Amino acid sequence: MIPARRPVQRPADARLLVVDRRGAIVDTTRAALMDHLRPGDLVVANDAATLPASLHGIHQPSGSPIEVRLAGRASLAREDLRFSAVVFGAGDWRTRTEDRPAPPQLADGDRLALGPLVATVEALLGHPRLIALRFADDPDAVWAGIARHGRPIQYAYMEQALALWDVWTPIAAQPVAFEPPSAGFALDWRTLGEMRRRGVDFATLTLAAGISSTGDAELDARLPLDEPYRISRAAAAAIQRTKARRGRIVAVGTTVVRALEHAGAHSGTVVAGERLANQRIEAHTRLRIVDAILSGTHEPQESHYELLRAFQDDATLARVTVALEARGYRSHEFGDSVLVERRDRRTAMVA
Asked: What are the chain's domains?
């Protein structure tokens, strides 16, 4: 597939590939999304706004230039100033992550000067590029420093540097995501209004979406990292009502699937609260909450694709990949979309 190279969230020619519960494939336009939603469905989106999580600076012990990409936290609390981060040597997004030089040798206690901020390496997390770090200043200074000095994380397939507004979805609220929950780029207020007119409900949750690529195969195999999330009482109640009337839960993006399936893993019921999603969703995962996913297009080697294997079998997903490539669908965060229903297990058993 061809990567979308320009930061246009809702291009007029955006496409949508629909896969129903029996594995049938329909090629259509994203403008026709509402034709594939039903009265009684509940669409759930991630309202996390995206942080400028790429911070350039200096590794003070060696004096070497570095780029720190904030990648995770244990909570959504504003006062929590401990992060996991991926560190690169000199350079920026214009070089492919796979080709970026390694950082200088990092050790516990190293200080990193990141613009107006100073962070301390608290631990190496099993890989020379992955660290736990803590900022030394008070929360007001840290968040202000990140806002002034940081840039959105981006990759070399883009044609231009991203502005922060390029990576905020139309429903963006609390800035806690490290990369955008980009499936939400497909939404706009007109679509939400049309949902309401057609009897489709809408709710949001907040999950601190992590990074999608580190440029290192060993590290990429560990993605996604743990991600904190919050589900409101209103959202939990909407999910319960939808389940009671046998409507579908349609997740906008892999982050929503991860949050809802983590929240409902034990009882099959989503309870409001703040938790840490630490599970992997793969082919063998039994989905208990989500019935369909609206997502970007993903290559088979990506962690997002692994999650799609919980919705459809490998043979169907292989046909999807062929269809996406044959029809010229665009990939990555500003690309086209797929709407994939959870497969009918009875049909799968008969097949």
From this structure: 2-50+161-350 (3.40.1780.10), 54-149 (2.40.10)
